[in-house]
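#random but structural
TW: two for the price of one
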Amino acid sequence: MSRFASSLRQTLRAVLTDRYARVLMIGAVVLYSFFYPAAYRHQVASNLPIVVVDQDQSRTSRALLRRVDALHTVRIVGQPASLDQARQQLERGQAEGILLIPPHLERDILRGGAGHLVLMGNGAYLGRASWVLGGVADALTAFAREAAVGQAAFMGAPQAAPITLVQRPLFNTREGYGSAIVPGVAELIVHQTLLMGIGVLLGARRLALGRRLRFDLPSLAGMALGFAIIGLAGLLYYAGFTAWVQDYPRGGNPLGQVLGGALFIAATVAFGLFVGSFFATRERAFQVVIACSIPLFFLANLSWPTTTSPPALVALAQLLPTTAGINLMVRLNQMDARLADVHHELATLTALLVLYGALAVWRLGARTYPS
């Protein structure tokens, strides 16, 4: 027990006193909690510029423009006289879309006919074009429903209210890119900083000793617990404080987050001790772990369904703690999942803990064979 407690204290002291480990395992976690979500602060595109070619110049067209200009997504930056002038502005990057109102729009509507509108977006930026086309299309659809009611009243038809579809997203309530991506990346940040911190400390100690590292089981267990305390604190910091500050969905299953998060961190520490046992210098940890960050996130299949990935790649990804860990924490924190709903991820992380724990003991345990 004394070796266990001594190793635990030494590990925590090393994290706090080693400059590289402190910056990685504490400083980077705090820095990224503010720096990374800043790119998605607005969550959705807004105030994208569009130009309008109003060839009708009627009361109806002006009412339509007021509705479009009231949108949060777009703003009208000009009304050129012709479609050619509008196209030139689009090509110069002064606008993201063009709304063309042809002549006789009001007359066609009042006569009971169908008014025609033309909406064009700049396809060079698919994300912006999607928001422009979608936002303006919603405004035009609402305007068309009002016009249909007016036509019905004028022609003596029943004035039943049209059906209105109210869409309410269940989890990503703001329908923002940040709410969809940042919570998953947060778990990856904790995983990677913890992995680099373990590699840095093991690499530095191995370089100082000039030989392969060996620990008895109590010392190895105390070291693992020290790393796990740091990692779990960072994980709960992201799931709680950071999600609250950035106003992301949070707090779905607090008890499940503690239990599932502890298992995720434990598997990460075991994986880190095994991988870190191969690092002869602290610099190697930076080179290897940073290069793997983006592939690890994509292998977690958070950004697209698993069914779209090759089955062999999906199976291989199960050997990484991030695959089960990211999906586990997102479902527990953002989606209010029960532990029974994430039994597959829990079982996977348990198996990985046993696997990499045994490999870490094999690599770092105090046995006598050449390095």
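TW: number two ↓
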Amino acid sequence: MSLANQILTINDDFFIRTHQPVHRGKVRAVYWLTKEDSQRLAKEKNYDVASDALLAVMVISDRISAFDCIWKADGGLNGVPGKGAALNAIANYWFKLFKANSLTDSHILDIPHPYVWIVQKAKPVKIEAICRKYITGSMWRAYAKGARKFCGITLPEGLKKDSALSELFITPSTKGILTGIPGVPETDDVNITRKNIEDNFAAFNFSTVDDIAQYETCLKEGFSVISNALAEMEQIFVDTKFEFGYVTDTSGKEKLIYIDEVGTPDSSRIWDTAEYKVGNIVENSKEDFRQFLLNYFSDPDILLNKNRMSERKSLALNNTLPVDALMNISKTYIKIAEKIIGQPIHLSDNPKQEIIDILKTEYNLYPINLNVPV
């Protein structure tokens, strides 16, 4: 089987029965099921959801996104081998651990295939909730330029790059472009403060102002569970992003849950503990790929400056990277995934056909007689 068949780069062309257009994200595609299929699956599979819950099939791809752009390599290599399976396996592992530690639920109901989740529709909180235990990345860049306030938090003098912070800092940013919120620029992924959220909780899709404290508790609990588990694997959980949303449970009560992935190399920085102790930073995350891009192009400001987004998109569209750049991140993702889950990551010979077959025979979501080229 060719490498091209093993990599799932196009994930928005499945003929899954839906009741609205496919949502195309940078990495995932979401197929919202019909009301009839949602109710049928909930009953057949005994999902713990409200009777009127809408369900979706979420298909991850092997595309690699960095600096809000999709990157490809020479020779038609348009994705990272094993990336999708590694990310899903890691997130699935953490969600099981969350459940074992009595944390709040996630939107995942079923895992038909390593590249696929069945999820329930949630009302998303419009915040990317970032937790930081070390000063690095954008926080360090701002600090090095003299900034001492970050998302409303005052940082002390004398901090050094990549050093541990005194506590876990919550540094939220906007998810999507939000309009009409005083003091919040109308742009995606802009840092905000807790006061911004408190003063405009409904604009950020919180149901009540009291839910802000609950979301912060979920952040800290989730970070702690993953951090403690990684520490036992000689890994440091540096920072991460969580996302949340609301669903209605079987009793009709609204509850706040985790949505999207958690604790993956795409959404987190993970450092090797032994190397860190001797002064080296060894990344087990996408950060290595980001640093590669910053060093590869002659003008890295294009990748860091949000005002140059049109140039950035052109850079990604019109350039191919060395094959090794994508193969190296494949090795990183698979290695950390196998360390976390404690077993090998299986690379499908043809994930697209496998997904079609499963959704046909086991979920009745695919036209049985449709001849679909793969």
